[in-house]
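Here is a complete protein record:
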Amino acid sequence: MSRERYDVIVIGAGLGGSACAGLLAKRGLDVLLLEKNRVAGGKAMSLAKNGFRFTAWVVIGAPVRDNYYQRVLDELGVADLAELVVPGTQGSIYRNPAGRYSMLPDMPVGETDPNVIFAWLEIPEHRRPAALEFFAELTFMPSEKIASLEGRSFASWLDQYDLPLSLRAFLTSLCCDGMFMVPSDRLDAAEAIASLQEMFLKGGGVFCKGGFGRVAEAYCEAVRRFGGTVQMGTRVERILVESGKVAGVRTSDGRTYRAPVVVSNAGIQPTVLKYVGEEHFEPSYVDYVRSLVPSYALLGYRYFLSRPVTDRPYGVIFSDTSPWTSDRLERAARGQASREGVVYYEVPSNYDPEAAPPGKQILLTGSFCPPDPDLPREEIQAWADAGERILFDAFPELPAAIEDKDLYTTRSVANATRDSAMPGVGGETIGLAQVVGQAGTKRPRIESPLEGLYFTGADAGARGVGTQMAIASGIRAAEIVWERRRHGR
């Protein structure tokens, strides 16, 4: 039975919100966690259909070692509720200029061998020493030098090197386009290099059996075990403000819950512009919030297959020309350039035997598109068709094995996760983009100007890749709220 007064209310049971709520509950605070959906996980929620189970869309975790998923599961004592798995292999596919597709050879997790990559990318022998020198510089760059690159685009940093086109495509397609969902000419170089280092040295490709929503569900269970309250299917309509301070929330069913602290995992823009209201902030802060740029979106299919078509757990399909630039994305959105680019795929049944009925397989795909949740149907289909053509070329046996397929779109993402508070925004895959001016020391703060209001999730206060960045933000938000409470602020 829920009550009306709490120490802290957390809005949204995504990975950041649920981690924050669990950690605060463990510290002894009376926590209420509200989630509009019937399941936890946010942008990484788990779904099930006809005996298949999976994360709603492609989600590939990195790094593997010392990852935030396990760190918080262990701290909250719920590691038995979510089983992480590291397949150890991947299936990235390079299409060479002649149109031939080849798969990346296997390498041990966390032991990236540049020479294996160079051979796969068909880099001539005489260009490999310089490429190896570049690889070493990127992988072992000191943190002080990485920090000095903040404010510079990753593309401009790459431009100073004479890299083979295929190696540059590998870095931007396999790593940066997928890790950050922004083109490299806008991606912050420090953010990219720090995350690439972690992936190369600690491995990439960690998943959760049953989907990453299981991790968030475990965090929610920790909230309950530590005496907190979790209410699913409860949509927050308004964050209440009294005398210039947060006072609680009102839900769509008309109920009011009181608390001096509200931590929002619902996105900075929806929180400020919709749930609180512009009138409670200085105009300059409202302008700042409106100016924040979202990441691009993923759009793709869930293929339910009658038989296996690949033994690989995940990968990216790319070519020398597939990496996106801002200009090409804008022209493609207007129908003035090809929409064919990088395609990501994940095969949950290849790392989780219970993800598909016996003898069957599920394969998820994702490719770039604008984050507008109101994209016209014909534009959605054009983006989807572009990705599907590439997938079918790479896996020619796949079409004949399809029993059913679901298309997920920017509207699917917005409906399930982030409410749209501005035109053209809401369907983004990650949240606020890690572009120059919005990353590192310029990342939006967890603390808001409104007393008692905090942000968590991929939008605020952390760096890294997607879901693990969200958890890192949740950890930091819990620390900030706890410290301020201890000191009576």
